Structure formats: structure tokens, C-alpha cells
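Weekly sync, protein design subgroup
Attendees: M.S., D.O., the rotation student, P.L. (late)

Item 1: inverse folding check
M.S. brought a backbone from last month's batch and wanted to see whether the design step gives back something sensible before we order anything. D.O. pointed out we never logged the input encoding, so this time it goes straight into the notes. C-alpha cells as presented (320 positions):
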């Protein structure tokens, strides 16, 4: 299992060893260099590993987008193919960081400045293989106003509820078999995660990027960030810790076997997972579709509270 909080040198060695498809930075980098606003306007540039302490301090808001970005940086550093994109920073004329964005497969951004948001949106227009944009409704609406004309077209727009748990629920029957997954669990976890991704986004990762999907999931398992509960060779319950920081863990891919729903397996698995995770982090969070009332009731019943709303825009690939 990979050690948590790996050193910068260890992350670099690990990233160099991993064989992945080359990531195309050149379109975005050229666009970034072309953003030469008038004197005194914010400057945008790719962020490097030397910027990490400053960037992680900047991304301390405790929102979904900042937690995911901070988690990626903690795992991979600012420069890694595992980020599936490029981190950019925007600075004012005094060199102070006033905006951070990840532009790539997922587009996430944090800034309080409209000019910075507009600059990030124009930059994102140069990336032609983006999959999703995530942010609070106000931020996404403003981003889209700048991005929409020259960017990819929306394929699916979802309103999602940002739920959070800070205190473990009263103990239910303990689940002795809840454990971190191993690579032996990879086939069943891959199958479940692919189905969940297709239901959410309409894209089957086993068709769109099977090798990359397998590699990323195997790495998450090696990091100890996939939890499973199996009985008699069946996967009863599963959850992925997509991002892990001292302040907050972000969960995705929560699953209960269809034949066992309504029998308490989900509540037992989720409550035990919460007790385990809250030993090392201050809060657990997740997103649930606004229209999925059954899922909302499940999470509310298990100690999650509504904190905010988010918009998720899944994008159509640009046609060549």
C-alpha cells in the first residue's frame, strides 16, 4: 500500500515510473501564454511543485472543489499525469495568489475575482477533452457565461446536494468484514464503479478509457481508499474515498448490492465507515443528485446534513 502523505521526491519517482498515455499540455499552455492582459491585470501560469504550500493554504475553504483539488495535490503534487489536467494559478500585480484552477478531465476552480474566473474560463476553452465542470451554482453560472461560446457543449446538467457528516452516528451492529479493498477485489469494484459512472454521466469508462480506468482504480485501492464488505463472494457494500485531507474526506461510488437493499446493509456499512474515517479527518462529505430522493433519505438517516448545492455539467467532446 502506498504511504499516505508521501514526500515530494517519492511522488515524483512514483509518477515517473507509471506508464500512462501522454497528457496534452500544449494547447492549454499556449493559450495561457497568450493571456497577456493589460498591465496590472492578474497573470495566469501553470503551477509547479514549489508552489504547493501556498496553493494548499489557499485551497482551505472546505468545499467539494477545494477538497478534491487539495486531495489530488496531496496524492500527486501539482505536476502529475494522475491529476488528468494542469493546475493553474492567477496572481495579482503584487504576486499574491488570487485564484487556482484545475483544467483538464475535470475543471475545478477557486477564486473570488470575476476577472480571474473569466480568465480561467477562456483558458479552459483550449482544452478539448474535458468531461465535467463542478462548482456552486453561482460560480458555475458565471464560469459558463465566459466559457460557453467557445467551449464544449453541455451534455447533462445536474443539481447536486452537498452533504456532510462531522459526528459518527450511533453505533449500529458492527461490520467485522468491512475492510480496505485489495487488488483481488479490482474486477468486482471496476464493474460496479463503471455502472455507477454510466448511471451518473452516461459515459461507460470501460468503453471510453478501459486501461486508464483500471489503472486509476488500482492505484486508489493501493492507497487504501476503497472500502468493501463482501460475503460469500458477493460485494455487499462499497465506498471510494476520492479525496482525503485532514479537514475533510470526499466520498464517491457508494454502493449496496441490489438484492440486499432495504435490509440494513447500507446503513451498517456507511455508519462503520464513518466511524473509521472520522478518526483521522474532521468531516466526511459527498454529493447526491437532487432528484435522487431515496439516496437523500438514506444519507440523512445516517447522519449527513445538507450544507450546500452544487451544479455539475457533463460535457460533450468537441468534434474534430
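Designed sequence read out in the meeting:
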Amino acid at each position: 500500500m502506498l504511504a499516505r502523505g508521501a514526500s515530494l521526491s517519492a511522488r515524483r519517482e512514483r509518477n515517473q515510473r507509471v506508464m500512462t498515455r501522454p497528457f496534452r499540455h500544449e494547447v492549454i499552455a499556449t493559450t495561457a501564454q497568450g493571456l497577456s492582459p493589460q498591465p496590472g491585470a492578474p497573470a495566469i501560469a501553470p503551477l509547479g511543485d514549489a508552489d504547493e504550500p501556498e496553493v494548499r493554504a489557499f485551497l482551505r475553504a472546505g468545499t467539494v472543489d477545494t477538497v478534491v483539488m487539495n486531495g489530488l495535490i496531496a496524492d500527486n503534487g501539482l505536476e502529475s499525469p494522475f491529476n488528468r489536467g494542469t493546475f493553474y494559478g492567477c496572481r495579482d500585480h503584487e504576486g499574491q495568489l488570487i485564484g487556482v484552477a484545475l483544467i483538464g478531465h475535470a475543471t475545478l476552480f477557486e477564486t473570488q475575482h470575476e476577472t480571474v474566473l473569466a480568465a480561467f474560463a477562456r483558458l479552459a476553452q483550449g482544452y478539448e477533452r474535458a468531461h465535467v465542470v463542478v462548482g456552486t451554482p453561482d460560480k458555475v453560472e458565471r464560469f459558463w457565461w465566459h466559457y460557453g461560446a467557445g467551449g464544449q457543449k453541455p451534455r447533462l446538467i445536474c443539481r447536486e446536494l452537498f452533504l456532510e457528516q462531522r459526528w459518527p452516528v450511533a453505533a449500529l451492529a458492527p461490520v467485522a468484514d468491512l475492510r480496505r479493498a485489495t487488488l483481488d477485489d479490482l474486477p468486482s469494484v471496476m464493474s460496479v464503479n463503471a455502472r455507477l459512472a454510466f448511471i451518473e454521466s452516461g459515459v461507460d469508462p470501460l468503453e471510453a478509457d478501459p486501461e486508464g480506468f483500471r489503472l486509476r482504480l488500482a492505484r486508489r485501492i493501493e492507497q487504501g481508499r476503497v472500502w468493501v464488505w463482501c460475503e460469500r463472494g458477493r460485494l455487499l457494500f462499497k465506498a471510494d474515498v476520492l479525496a482525503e485531507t485532514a479537514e475533510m474526506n470526499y466520498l464517491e461510488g457508494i454502493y449496496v448490492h441490489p438484492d440486499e437493499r432495504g435490509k440494513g446493509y447500507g446503513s451498517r456499512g456507511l455508519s462503520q465507515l464513518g466511524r473509521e474515517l472520522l478518526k483521522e479527518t474532521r468531516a466526511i462529505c459527498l454529493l447526491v443528485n437532487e432528484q435522487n430522493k431515496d439516496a437523500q433519505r438514506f444519507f440523512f438517516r445516517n447522519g449527513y446534513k445538507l450544507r450546500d448545492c452544487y451544479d455539475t455539467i457533463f460535457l460533450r467532446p468537441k468534434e474534430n
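Discussion: Residues 8-152 form a domain with the Aminopeptidase fold (CATH 3.40.630). The chain has eleven helices and twelve strands.
Action: P.L. to compare against the previous round before Friday.
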